[in-house]
Structure formats: C-alpha cells, structure tokens
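Contributing new records

If you add data, match the layout below exactly. Sequence lines come first and carry their own label; structure lines follow with theirs. Keep one chain per record. Anything else will be rejected by the validation script.
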Amino acid sequence: MIFLTLFYTFFMIGLFGFGGGYGMISLIQAEVVYDHHWMSSTEFTNILAISQMTPGPIGINSATYCGYTAVYNLTGSTWLGVLGSCTATFALMLPCFTLMVVISKLFMKYMNTSPVQSVFLGLRPAVVGLLAAATLLLANKENFSSPENPWQFYVSIFLFASTFVGTKWVGINPIKMILYAAFAGLVLL
C-alpha cells in the first residue's frame, strides 16, 4: 500500500510542481512530513541538504531520498527502501516527461498567441511564490537552532547571512560557499 501512496503522492507533486525542483520543495515537505508523517522535519532537512550537494536536479534527488527514507522508516528493509526510491523518482518524472512532450509540440505551434502568453504571465508570480514558500519553510529551528541554544543559533544566523552576502554581493562561487559553511560548521558547531 505504501508504494501506491508513494507513487500517487509524487505523481501529483510532479504534476503540480511548477518552478522546477526548488518549487517542489514545499510540496514535498508538506506531503512527506506533515500529511503522511513518513519522516521527521529533521530527516527532511537532512535529505534536502544531501539533495543539494549531490549532482542532478534537486527535485528528483529529493524524491529519490524521500522515497527511500519513507519506505525504510515504515519497513526497516533496505531493499524495499530502494524500491521506494525508484517508485518516487519515476512517479515524479512521469508527469513532467509526458507534459513536456505534449507541451513542446503545442508550444511551437501556439507560442505567439495571446492566450499562451497570458498563461505564462500568470504562472511567473506563482512560481516565485512557490520558491518563496520553500525558502520560508526551511527557516525553522532544525536549520537555525533556537534562541534557547544561543551559540548554535547565532552561528547559524551568521552562516546564513555570510552565505547570502557572499553569493549575492561579493560573487563567491556557491560551491565554495557550501564548502566554507561546512568547514565553519565543523569548527564552530
């Protein structure tokens, strides 16, 4: 039963996950952590960190790791976890693949029409909203600790601000910033 639920859940995320992988993060978190309780918020945050560090699209990486973790947490079986991983990944990619084949044929034919341009004008703010929701959902105590543990909280805020300033205004390569933050976390936390 878990595999059918997993397939349906990630199929729907793939169908409505506009904005790419980062737009899907809030949808995936809502489903796997809050709706189905397949994993804790801390496990999801760890999965998200691994998904960002490994090569490949973050949405697919997250689905792969979430599928494995969800099934493993319920069954304790590594092999069933791998099957859950494959199920979630395939389910997430299926609607995207199908829609892209259909839309690419239609888009080439109708891309300059007024209704198509209006649809894209409406989707742009929705995609920005999904990305903002993903950002705000990650601003939780698992990522920033809490003021009850002042040292960890202030180090987390410092690393967040340094990474933001370093990538946005100083122009430091994001890969280098990830390595710097990991080293700082190792030394300071």
